[in-house]
Design a protein that fits this description.
This protein has 373 residues and is of the alpha/beta class. The chain is elongated and about 70 Å long. The chain folds into 2 domains: 264 residues, Acetylglutamate kinase-like (Carbamate kinase), CATH 3.40.1160; 94 residues, Archaeosine Trna-guanine Transglycosylase, Chain: A, domain 4, CATH 2.30.130. It contains 14 helices and 13 strands. Bound molecules: adenosine-5'-diphosphate (ADP) and ligand VHF. The site of adenosine-5'-diphosphate has 25 residues, from helix 1 and helix 9. It catalyses: L-glutamate + ATP = L-glutamyl 5-phosphate + ADP.
Length: 373
């Protein structure tokens, strides 16, 4: 078996608290240095990497000299604020050795649930990647209340994977991967080398956290793999203590448990577009544009004759044929006001009319679902 990571270009890597903080004993600088070296090697291969790191609370608890992880939310938040300083300092200095710039991003659930904030988070992350900066993400623990909390970084890792259309999610933890039962208390548990992400039996195998430092255990990792697969991304759960784990995965070596996505990234994205998003308005196309879309092309402003309703960049609109029948829907690159200004215009006129150009297409073909043959 080959690792799918070899052919993946954009990868989210999540590292858990017990690994980052040596089971709560304090920041594991040697481990951070190893991952930094490997991630630098991945970026030299042309891969784009986003790191989701836990460990702020565990490190804060250690720095504050507390005997154990507190149960009060405010104490956890205080610990996270202290510990996050340690995390970013640690990562910054390790990645600097490899001339890699890093950026800290702290997110809450609301940032990804709100359409505008979601698009902003996406654009910022993609811009950082374009500039070869390594984003290091954690939950914004100091401001969250229980209602807006992701709660565990496995979920956050999967949502970031969906957000940036990553090809894969690698979850590094303190076990080799997924076993048929928690190996800490089931010596007979068997290792799962490969499975389809989202299969029901995986959720039955996975238990909670085995240590007092981690939160979600294997259950949240299996659910994260199911969620990552919704945008067509594969997940690998592997040990962060395995020597050269990241570079070996990138070389195609099958390490850890590989939970593959059933559908391709493009098919998944189109399914998601078709099913999940609220439709905000519509554009009416001319006959030429209808033909172009049916042939697999993107929608250009030149083929649009009318705009109906109010929509913003990133929202979903209906594409109507000249006789008013919905023939496609997709994610628009320009708002209704902007579209109004550029309809029937060739792409070369976008910049003179708008004063800027986001994308040459009104709807890119990857963001378009055809509804009729
Ligand atoms: N089926 C399983 N296979 C492997 N580990 C499991 C399983 N069920 C529960 N676990 C537990 O999940 C733990 C990893 O999750 P967690 O402690 O939350 O780590 P992290 O901090 O890396 O997120 C393992 O140490 C193990 O005890
Ligand atoms: N945001 C928290 C993450 C908590 C968490 O999910 O931990 P883990 O199960 O180890 O990934 C922190 O940095 O402590």
């Amino acid at each position: 078996m080959q690792s799918v990571i070899q052919s993946c270009q954009r990868i989210v890597i999540k590292v858990g608290s017990s690994l980052v903080t040596n089971e709560g004993r304090g920041l594991d600088h040697a481990a951070l240095a190893r991952w930094a070296e490997e991630i630098a090697a991945l970026t030299r291969m042309g891969k784009q990497v986003v790191l989701v790191s836990s460990g702020a609370i565990a490190e804060g608890v250690k720095r504050l000299g507390w005997a154990k992880r507190p149960s009060m939310l405010h104490e956890k938040q205080a610990a996270a604020a202290v510990g996050q300083m340690g995390l970013v300092q640690g990562y910054e200095s390790c990645f600097r050795q490899h001339s890699l710039q890093t950026a800290q991003i702290l997110l809450t659930h609301e940032d990804l649930a709100d359409r505008t904030r979601y698009l902003n988070a996406r654009s910022t992350l993609l811009t950082l990647l374009q500039h070869r900066v390594l984003p290091i993400i954690n939950e914004n623990d100091t401001v969250v209340t229980s209602e807006i909390k992701f709660g565990d970084n496995d979920t956050l890792g999967a949502l970031v994977t969906n957000l940036i259309d990553a090809d894969a999610l690698i979850i590094l933890t303190d076990q080799r991967g997924l076993y048929t039962a928690d190996p800490r208390n089931n010596p007979a548990a068997e290792f799962v080398h490969e499975a389809v992400a989202g299969s029901a039996e995986l959720e039955q195998m996975a238990g909670g956290a085995g240590s007092s430092v981690g939160t979600g255990g294997m259950y949240t990792k299996v659910i994260a793999a199911k969620r990552a697969a919704l945008s067509g991304a594969h997940t690998v759960i592997a040990s962060g203590r395995e020597p050269q784990v990241l570079t070996r995965l990138a070389a195609g070596e099958a390490i850890g448990s590989q939970l593959t996505a059933g559908t391709s990234r493009l098919a998944a994205r189109k399914q998601w577009l078709a099913d999940h998003l609220q439709v905000k308005g519509s554009v009416t196309l001319d006959a030429g544009a209808v033909k172009a879309l049916r042939g697999g092309a993107s929608l250009l402003p030149v083929g649009v004759v009318e705009v109906n309703g109010d929509f913003l960049r990133g929202e979903v609109v209906r594409c109507l044929s000249p006789d008013g029948v919905e023939m496609a829907r997709g994610l628009v690159n320009y708002s209704s006001l902007e579209t109004q200004k550029v309809l029937r215009q060739p792409t070369t006129k976008l910049e003179p009319i708008l004063g800027y150009i986001d994308e040459p297409e009104l709807i890119h073909r990857d963001n378009l679902v055809l509804l009729q043959a």
